[in-house]
Structures
1.
Amino acid sequence: MRGAATLRKAPLMNMITNHMPTEELRALDSAHHMHPFTHNNDLTKKGARVITRARGVTLTDSDGNDYLDAMAGLWCVNIGYGRTEPADASARQMHELPFYNTFFQTTHVPAIALSTKLAELAPRDLNHVFFASSGSEANDTNIRLVRTYWAQKGHPDKNIIISRKNAYHGSSVGSGSLGGMTFMHEQGGLPIPNIHHIDQPDWWNEGGDMSPEEFGLERAQQLEKAIQDLGENRVAAFIAEPIQGAGGVIIPPSTYWPEIQRICDAYDILLIADEVICGFGRTGKWFGSETLNIRPDIMTIAKGLSSGYAPIGGSIISDEIAAVIDNCEFAHGYTYSGHPVSCAVALENLRILQEEGIVDRVASTTGPLMAETWHSLADHPLVGETNIVGMMGSMVMTPDKESRAKFASESGAVGLICRENCFKNGLVMRHVGDRMIISPPLVITPKEIKTLGDRARLALDLTYKHLKSEGMLKAA
Ligand SMILES: *Cc1c(COP(=O)(O)O)cnc(C)c1O
């Protein structure tokens, strides 16, 4: 870790310091840049953190402070920051062919190579890729794809997609509708018609007196009930993240996915696994569907596909669905579907993940070590429960472990205090309500895992002290 003092002497100093003073950058940012998912006036008062560079798992801000990024940016920088190979691949591709479309009976080598590679990595008969530039776009593709699939098969009314409350599938009108974030639906007239939401498998918050196993079954059986209520002839597909990410890294009880798979097999509906976070090694296998033993017909991909080095997403589609869609003109596509530079960067990222054994390492060594470190925090008086699979984990804070009580303060108030304490101590963790979550770069080393654990404990200690002194340790 580099402190501010050594940074001033660093040979790369121009890269870091050759910018306006932070306050001026903040003023311009606030005058002209509207941030996503942000109350921009509140941010103006505080001033945004300006991140200027990053290496490995470490971010540096414009004042020279270092942070261990336990969120891999937004769950995406799987290979870590500062790799030169994707940069070189992108420069080579820009020189060779910066852009060409794939609409008008043309193709190019990066799109061919990446779709072929993805077919090789994806399980079973998921052999066909429709490219997008993001997870949101890919899920919009999926809405049109499954509806077109059933219409082509003579069932135009089989167009309802079942999703889950508190799911995250993106922020476009379509993908935001698939998602189950009510605070998003409240703005702009979402959801679109024919999207139906069932309850999520969040045992800690919603399990009541049931055991996790009973609760997992109950939540999965809501899918069966919804199919029966809506009519099998009306339901096109069920979409879910193998493990909910933005909803708070909610790892479902062990009974949940087997029952969902049974129901999907029993009824004629398609299963879409949104692998945008779980894909590309996050859970210790190439795809979360493998870790959770499910057999999707379509997988949504983005984020770790390029480790965030270039925007790209897509849908990986089964032989059967592709055969039906290929029988018509699917009237859908994006200018940047299969953008050559993004494809070249993604290919380089997949090469690194595979050749350096990064995915295997998560399964065999760093994942188990991360789990041990994460679970060791469960003895902290604030922590009700820790959960982790591979390199995605969550920790619930509670004023009373036994009763799984919520804090009397508004949901998220304690989480925000803890997140601020993380930042102060050089750690980026995110909070969802009063749950703290991590999703570090997959290349995090054993030493960095220890640092993550130490800083998280320190943040918890400071948060506990703060809550005590403010009289906030009360249960709702
Ligand atoms: C981030 C995310 C998306 C949306 O991807 P964008 O690239 O932000 O559009 C979709 N699904 C899941 C599970 C995600 O985490």
Note: Residues 446-469 form the longest helix (24 residues).
2.
Amino acid sequence: MTQQSGTHGGKSSSSGVDRKTFCGICEASCGVVVTVAGDDVLKIRGDVDHPNSKGFLCPKGAAFGAVRDDPDRVLRPLQRQADGSFLPVSWDTALDDIGVRLRSLIKRHGTESVGVHLGNPNGWNYGAFMWLLGMAAALKTKHLYTASSVDINNYWVVGELLYGHNLVTPFPDIAHTKFLLVLGANPVVTHGSMMTAGRVKEQMAAIVERGGRVVVIDPRRSETAAQFEWQPMRPDGDPWLLAGMLKTILDEGLADQEALRQQTRGAASLPNLLKDVTPARVAAETGIAWADVQKLARDFAASPAASLYGRCGASLGPFSTLTKYLIDVINIATGNLDKRGGAVFGQPMLDTEAFTKLFKSNGYDRWRTRVDGIPEVLGTSPLASLPREIRTPGKGQLRALLIASGNIATTSCASGDVGAALDELELLISLDPYLTETNKRAHYILPPTLWLERDGLPIFSQMHAGVPYAQWAPATVSARGEARDDWWIIDAICKQIGLVPSPSKLVQLLGKLGVRLTPAVAVDLFMRIGPAGDWFGLRKGVSRKKLYGQTSGVQLNDAPAVGVCRRRVHHKGGLIPLDQPMMHTEMARMVARTAEDDPTFPLRLISLRELRSQNSWLHNVPKLTTGDRRPHLRIHPTDAKPLGLIDGQEVVITSHWGEIQAPVAISEEMMPGTVALPQGWGHGGGWRRAVAIGGGRYNDLTSNDAAEIDIPSGNAVLNGLRVRVSQACIEMAQAS
Ligand SMILES: Nc1nc2c(c(=O)[nH]1)N[C@H]1C(S)=C(S)[C@@H](COP(=O)(O)OP(=O)(O)OC[C@H]3O[C@@H](n4cnc5c(=O)[nH]c(N)nc54)[C@H](O)[C@@H]3O)O[C@H]1N2
Ligand SMILES: Nc1nc2c(c(=O)[nH]1)N[C@H]1C(S)=C(S)[C@@H](COP(=O)(O)OP(=O)(O)OC[C@H]3O[C@@H](n4cnc5c(=O)[nH]c(N)nc54)[C@H](O)[C@@H]3O)O[C@H]1N2
Ligand code: SF4
Ligand SMILES: [Mo]
């Protein structure tokens, strides 16, 4: 089989040829123009013709040529030796040996002993995404893990509960809103998550310019909070704040009864849900005066077009499903769902909801995990359970794992435990361009192409695009070394064990008869019969061929359609069922939980994302790692002073579960009592610059205890950790 590639009619410029695609690093999926000479990437700049990003580019996208040409990049399959070192081997040797090992393992323990993990970069790698899910389906394994369980499982659960499909996730119509309420998100740095809004900083500034407001609720005066109205709040105060706001809206008759009648059923249950939410408790849990909570609720309800938006800060606490439920209920109850300038439904080029429904991949709690009994979400198990699934004997014990673009020994909760558990696997295969702290434990590291080197379709970003658009661009440069598209590698591994990676019985059968689809053909077929498709020439619409000819993308609409709620809700009658027994249970659990201060762990730790980093990677790029890039612990002067800390001093951070070191940065950007540390650092393996930078690994402080996660969704708790901070030298002296 050959790798997929396409012709790319680029414009010549004096020093090379310009080719268009989109940046495959984060959800913004900015359109880019890549200047190529021969096979060299000379320059990457923003594409002014892109319907969403309109020429924007951040430092990460601009520097990506250095990742492609990184001297530390893995360019041949690597096989681990007895002494832990790696030797390059041929593809045939690697694949044949993987085949032998997998066949033996499956013979002894069945296909359910083999697992698959999808890390974050699969979101810009549609072929890998489909083939990995297809592989898990063909294996009939419950060991399907994704980065979603340390990120966004709460969204997927609430999507299923409220709208009847995990992937239905309304997002702010930022171009038209008059009031954007941001709960635990920092789009000025992260460029938007579950909200693909090009030039997001400018679009937020425009809200204020047209007389509206942007209010940011965050324990840290983040880069976003610093530019707009900042309301500090204690970590994990989110569900309390929202419950207090909803209570105010209902008690004061501010709810939009007509919207509730038109869009929902079960609204009468809401007062009962909030019966134990008292002003005093809300104020204590959030650190925000009750009068201010009430004012926020009134202002939000009074706005002609408001949207409440929460992301990682509201997704990685102990009650994240309840939090996301309350976010949506407030949007709905104030009449802002499915309204211009409110929270809108996406209008994708590719109907991912129909696609997943066709193969029954969407769903919630259709089964529970073997060891911890956690409900499945979209057919996946949570990363928190992974080490226990590896270690707990019995039928279905996880013995072999294929990880594609995941660095879970850093990014998953209890990262130290994850690393140690991976060592216990009979077979670990990693698809990654680098030798990381995760895959240094692998038996094989297989080199993938990167986004510039493969064709691209923004499969994930298109679901939440502020300006609906379609784009599909061919590869801009050829693969380096012996790198292969991830999907090709997955397909080759599946062939070794006689599987066709697909959830479709028909496709599996065809594959066994020798007709193997490529992801491009499968997606093109589906897209052409979909909402934006050309129905094979029967109407004006998109196809791969057409999009390849317009590599900046095609705008499908000025803004996502509104007034579509009934059609977009998959529940019977198109009504949103607001009465959710599980949310009553969660509320009771939250109310019963006493948040007593623990003097031995007086501070609360939250995660921090940086402009020149992407989760746990891009840390080997010189241009993105100038200056002192060690992760610094941000601490308020009033917390630093009694500890006798001075700026830059090394401290020990201790949680219930671990201990790491970091230099401090004393800053008033923190709310007193709260400290913040960049996540994704503390590298090992063969990315030399990243390893040399060093730094503490945030998730060595987090827990994967089944009681410490968000119970309904299995989402990890990574923010709001109770910690203590002490001077490194004093701690060391005590230890000796
Ligand atoms: N530059 C850059 N961009 C990225 C990434 C990156 O690593 N770097 N990662 C990408 C990924 S995978 C994702 S998911 C998105 C995430 O996108 P965002 O959610 O916008 O990113 P975070 O920086 O995690 O924002 C979380 C905010 O919540 C605050 N916070 C922490 N705890 C709490 C809390 O308990 N309550 C409230 N209200 N706030 C809290 C933090 O201080 C922070 O400002 O970003 C994406 N974009
Ligand atoms: N403490 C704390 N931890 C967090 C978070 C937090 O806010 N705080 N955020 C969480 C979130 S939101 C997320 S999404 C996860 C992200 O965590 P992961 O899913 O682990 O993702 P990344 O760190 O972005 O990248 C993982 C790997 O993908 C590789 N890679 C890049 N491109 C490709 C490619 O095209 N193909 C292949 N095969 N590999 C590729 C990179 O080299 C890297 O090693 O981290 C989570 N962890
Ligand atoms: S914002 Fe995201 S998509 Fe845009 S250039 Fe930066 S990393 Fe790439
Ligand atoms: Mo994420």
Note: The two ends are 60 Å apart (CA to CA).
